[in-house]
Write a structure and sequence with these properties.
This protein is of the alpha/beta class. The protein contains 10 helices and 6 strands; from the N terminus they run αααααβββαβαβαβαα. Strands 1, 2, 3, 4, 5 and 6 form a 6-stranded mixed beta sheet that branches. The termini are far apart.
């Protein structure tokens, strides 16, 4: 009643008439205010989580709230996520390298695990992964610019071959001759005549991981773990056309919306604009 009539009468007078301690009223008002603030913050946490496609955990939600001028502890965010039943798609898993057949090209590891690059398009790394399409295996190839972890080229198709990699080259925007070094593992889809001719035509140098050493291509491996978790896991696409459309949408989101811990919680596009 005091809250509803405080625009007409003073709080002190109403408390005296009702024989209510003013401290009790102000305490109740403060509690209500805190509850409303907590509900609003919870709503923002849920909104950020859903906008991230159920990807972000406590760290990234904290960073997004900081962008809005709110300082919130990870413990508090974690409590809100638990109350709302929000669970990130990520689970901790250790990479287990395994031996596979590969070509014996004498080309060496020019990159030598120099994954931090200060120049755009200086070094591009690539890899492939598999995805289900109508209960059959199809494949995705991506090109990653080590400068800002941006996916600059990609392709998908039913065959794990040189044509898949060649189509990914065709999606790179701009002049391919800007690329200085192309690093991959020793899969035959990368080291073959078609790709050799493509690299030679644009004067792009090649670098290959050492045999049986996936850590030589760690950025590509880590990016594909991300893609598997966020885009592929548990899905069976109805056809290749749908896969192409959804891959296009995911790459756009990955480059322009998704914040990256390795980029100080900026998107690849934001990082590039800030540092160029």
């Amino acid at each position: 009643m005091i809250r509803q009539n405080r625009h007409k009468y003073s709080v002190s007078a109403m408390c005296d008439v009702l024989q209510l301690s003013r401290s009790t009223y102000y305490y109740e008002a403060k509690v209500r205010e805190n509850q409303q603030a907590e509900q609003e913050l919870t709503r923002q946490v849920v909104q950020i989580f859903k906008a991230s496609r159920s990807i972000y955990g406590q760290r990234k939600i904290k960073k997004e709230l900081e962008k809005q001028g709110k300082q919130v502890s990870r413990r508090r965010i974690g409590r809100m996520m638990k109350e709302q039943g929000l669970v990130s798609k990520y689970t901790i898993a250790q990479f287990k390298p395994h031996k596979i057949g590969c070509n014996e090209s004498p080309t060496g590891n020019t990159l030598n695990r120099q994954f931090q690059q200060e120049k755009e398009l200086k070094v591009v790394v690539s890899d492939l992964t598999y995805v289900r399409v109508q209960q059959k295996w199809h494949y995705i190839c991506i090109f990653i610019d080590l400068y800002n972890r941006e996916i600059i080229g990609y392709s998908s198709g039913p065959n794990k071959d040189a044509q898949l990699v060649h189509r990914a080259f065709a999606t790179v925007k701009g002049d391919l001759s800007q690329l200085e070094l192309f690093h991959t593992d020793r899969g035959n889809e990368f080291k073959n005549r078609l790709i050799d001719e493509t690299l030679e035509a644009f004067q792009i140098n090649r670098s290959l991981s050492h045999k049986g050493t996936p850590y030589d291509n760690a950025v590509a491996e880590a990016t594909f773990k991300t893609i598997k978790t966020e885009f592929i896991s548990g899905r069976d696409f109805p056809n290749q056309h749908v896969l192409d459309l959804e891959l296009f949408d995911y790459v756009n989101w990955f480059n322009n919306v998704r914040i990256h811990g390795s980029l100080d919680y900026l998107t690849p596009t934001e990082y590039k604009l800030r540092h160029l």
